[in-house]
Design goal:
Length: 131
């Protein structure tokens, strides 16, 4: 039962944090930040909020600074929006999984592109009788 409670709290924190970042944070350092997932401890006292950023390394660093600066405000807003006995301590953690997926997709596309160009005009090396 406890695990389910922490999962429900994580879902609520995910939803509310996304709204707070989208509508309430005015810090220009916080660019295009997306909350990817939230992990909440079993006792619901600690929450790790994973996020991704659209942009390069510089944008990621600026967003990280902005999020760290806004942590107290986000926690206060979560406490106001989500009625819990204790508002969890929150930590923002960069989630590289989306960047990794994009990188892998680029590699796959490059391989397909190279294969198409290497087989243009050459055929597959087999005679027509062996299809």
């Amino acid at each position: 039962m406890e695990g389910k409670r922490s999962e429900k709290v994580a879902d609520l924190i995910h939803k509310e944090t996304s709204q707070i970042l989208m509508k309430s944070i005015k810090d220009p350092r916080v660019g295009l930040v997306t909350v990817t997932r939230v992990h909440v401890s079993e006792d619901c006292r600690f929450a790790k909020i994973y996020y991704s950023v659209v942009g390069d390394l510089k944008e990621r660093e600026r967003s990280m600074e902005g999020l760290e600066s806004a942590t107290g405000y986000v926690r206060k807003e979560l406490g106001r929006r989500i009625r819990l006995r204790y508002t969890p301590e929150i930590v923002f953690q960069f989630d590289p999984s989306i960047e990794y997926a994009i990188h892998m997709e680029e590699l796959i596309q490059r391989i397909h592109h190279e294969e198409e160009h290497s087989t243009d005009g050459e055929g597959d090396g087999r005679s027509p009788d062996h299809r």
